[in-house]
């Protein structure tokens, strides 16, 4: 017979899992909490009760999302005071509602001129209460290692958010001769790079293109031809590989050529 889950209060459950939540390397999920309570006490608790226990402990350890957003200005002030030359900015709407945030550490700004003149831009979605997206730009240093330049937060990936983000990026690190941006095919990124950095060249990351091909169920043979076409240095070799793709899979060839090769093929990128 199942134990009466009314005895498994949120306070009881949270007391057993709080140490797990303090460990950043350990992912605490409702399924884990449910299994632990069954194993330790023979208690069958529901998914929602397990989820609420996690939220309760998370708020105790890290604060609520509302509290953390209220602390952003103070956090950025401390960041600037402890990291010389750090650039930060927050945009708030007229009703005092948070809209955007941007920061670039002083060390990243200082070292940018010693990196390759290439900036890769990407974003990922938040899964917290208020959603939104985390934007990031990285480059490559002299040791061929990924070098973070900045971070931004916005409500979504759109023209307004990316225009503000790239404007802050320009304020923080300026521009460079022969500057190249790389990203996925998001139209807002392309539009706002052209608007804020008109002197730069914008290319498409071939990793993202390759992932798109895989999602389209393109044959591995064609993907290998695409990889070769994208990476060769001579235009003649590029044309040969693309010709092979057209013979094997005309639909994929047409898909790839929707974007000018100057944006994704090494042999076609303008000599700058």
Radius of gyration, whole Å: 24 Å
Counting DSSP H or I runs of 4 or more residues, the number of helices is: 12
Helix content: 40-55%
CATH class of the largest domain: Alpha Beta
Structural class label? alpha/beta
Q: Indicate the CATH architecture of the largest domain.
A: 2-Layer Sandwich
Order of helices and strands: HHHHHEEHEEEHEHEHHHH
Task: Give the low-confidence spans.
Answer: 1-5
CATH topology of the largest domain: Nucleotidyltransferase, domain 5
Quick one: how many beta strands? 7
Mean pLDDT: 91
From the spread of the alpha carbons, the general shape counts as globular
Query: What is the spatial order of strands in the main beta sheet?
Result: 1-2-5-4-3-6-7
| Domain tally | 3
- What is the beta-strand fraction? 15-25%
Largest sheet, in brief, is: 7 strands, mixed
Q: Between the first and last Cα atoms, what is the distance in angstroms?
A: 74 Å
Pfam families: MULE
Organism: Nicotiana tabacum (Common tobacco)
Protein name: Protein FAR1-RELATED SEQUENCE 4-like
InterPro entries: MULE_transposase_dom
Question: Can you put this structure into words, describing what you see?
Answer:
With 272 residues, the chain is of the alpha/beta class. The chain folds into three domains: 10-62; 86-204, 2-Layer Sandwich (Nucleotidyltransferase, domain 5); 206-263, no CATH class. Helix content is 49%, strand content 17%. It has helices at 10-22, 30-41, 47-62, 65-70, 72-82, 106-111, 159-173, 187-196, 206-215, 220-231, 235-248, 250-256; strands at residues 87-92, 98-104, 118-125, 133-140, 146-154, 180-183, 201-204. β1 and β2 (98-104) form a beta hairpin. α1 packs across α3, α9 packs antiparallel against α10 (220-231) and α10 (220-231) runs antiparallel to α11 (235-248). The protein is globular, with a radius of gyration of 24 Å. It starts with 9 loop residues before the first helix and ends in a 16-residue tail after the last helix. Mean pLDDT is 91; it is low at 1-5.
């Amino acid at each position: 017979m199942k134990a009466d889950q009314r005895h498994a209060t949120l306070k009881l459950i949270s007391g057993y899992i709080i140490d797990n939540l303090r460990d950043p390397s350990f992912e605490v999920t409702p399924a884990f909490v449910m299994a632990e309570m069954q194993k330790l006490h023979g208690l069958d608790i529901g998914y929602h009760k397990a989820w609420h226990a996690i939220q309760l402990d998370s708020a105790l350890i890290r604060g609520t999302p509302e509290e953390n957003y209220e602390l952003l200005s103070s956090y950025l002030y401390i960041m600037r005071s402890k990291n010389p030359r750090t650039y930060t900015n927050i945009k708030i709407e007229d009703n005092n509602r948070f809209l955007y945030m941007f920061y670039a550490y002083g060390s990243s700004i200082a070292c940018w001129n010693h990196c390759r003149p290439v900036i890769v831009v990407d974003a990922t979605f938040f899964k917290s209460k208020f959603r939104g997206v985390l934007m990031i730009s990285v480059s490559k240093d002299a040791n061929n290692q990924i070098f973070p330049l900045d971070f931004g937060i916005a409500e979504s990936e759109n023209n307004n958010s990316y225009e503000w983000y790239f404007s802050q990026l320009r304020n923080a690190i300026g521009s460079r001769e022969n500057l190249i941006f790389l990203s996925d095919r998001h139209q807002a990124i392309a539009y706002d790079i052209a608007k804020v950095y008109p002197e730069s060249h914008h290319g498409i990351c071939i990793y993202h293109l390759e992932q798109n091909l895989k999602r389209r169920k393109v044959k591995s043979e064609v993907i290998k031809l695409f990889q070769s076409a994208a990476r060769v240095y001579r235009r003649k070799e590029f044309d040969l590989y693309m010709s092979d793709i057209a013979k094997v899979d005309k639909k994929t060839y047409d898909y790839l050529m929707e974007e000018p090769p100057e944006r994704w093929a090494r042999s076609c990128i303008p000599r700058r």
